[in-house]
Amino acid sequence: MMPLKRFHAVRTLYRSSQIGQDSSSYLLGSCRSYSNALSNGSEGNFKSFHSHLFKCHDGFPLAGGKTLTLRSTMAAELSIFMNDKRMLSTQLKGSSLSRAVGTQISVSSPGFIYEPYEPREKIPFWQRWFTRSGWKRTKQDVILELKSAYAIQKLRKSGYSKSRFYNEAFKMYKEINALIANGDKKSLRKAVTEKMYSALKNEIKQRETTWNKVYWELIEPVIRVRTLRARLIGVDPKDLNKVFVQLTLEITAKQKFEAYDSKGSVVAGDKNKEVLVRDIWVFEKSMFHPGAYWRLCGRLSPKAS
């Protein structure tokens, strides 16, 4: 009787976790540019360009306003994510520094991506429900989804809108890629975090030793934008409201590029061909500094998901 009850409990948790997987674009709201050329023709040149440019409590809120009630050991283990902010805050010394940038506030980033997204390997139904390892995996999946749901719920309390954020993120995606292609390091500084800026500056410098100029164009509208993960990072163990939020987005769009040498000759790419590119970017924002804005804090290598 007890195993049967436990099976039903685990099944309920798993179905709840599937909410995030089946409707991640609704629940969570997300790499390297030019990272995966998915079309033929200019694929080789496109990858060549990439290698030069980028080396480099009991209740938890869920999507749709549902609340999942957790009991026994599952509740104890899932409560770990509630303590993540406390544990991470010990790694960050003091409160974050901020500086004025026009009418907005630029806040010093924690400097790392918390729990970088990686696609979860699918497992057979029988293994998930009828083996100990499968139950363990289901529990881990639920924990990951609940962390994202909690972060999104906290964002919504501050006025977060998925559609508005997606529009803002896509504009940033287009702007940052254009700045990188043009080598505009001064403007780039305002759109990315400190660590990201340092990496991009070095990548642009290295690219300029090979190519004199780069043509880049984004074909609109974007094909798809979806959120893969949402996380919170605490900076003050005494105040859990002092957090940064990180949203990992997958952006799929068609692009064109062409690279030239010092003589103006084409050495890579073809601006007459569209290439389908899938990027995974991590955007970050302080939730305790009025006027703080979203910035790019990292890029992840796209993998099959």
TrEMBL record:
Family assignment from sequence similarity: Belongs to the mitochondrion-specific ribosomal protein mL45 family.
Compartment list: Mitochondrion
Protein name, entry field: Large ribosomal subunit protein mL45
Top-rank lineage group of the source organism: Eukaryota
UniProt keyword annotations, A-Z: Mitochondrion, Ribonucleoprotein, Ribosomal protein, Transit peptide
InterPro entries hit by this protein: mtLSU_mL45 (IPR051975), NTF2-like_dom_sf (IPR032710), Tim44-like_dom (IPR007379)
Signal found in the keyword field: no
Keyword Acetylation assigned: no
PANTHER family linked: 39S RIBOSOMAL PROTEIN L45, MITOCHONDRIAL, LARGE RIBOSOMAL SUBUNIT PROTEIN ML45
GO cellular component term of the entry, any: ribosome
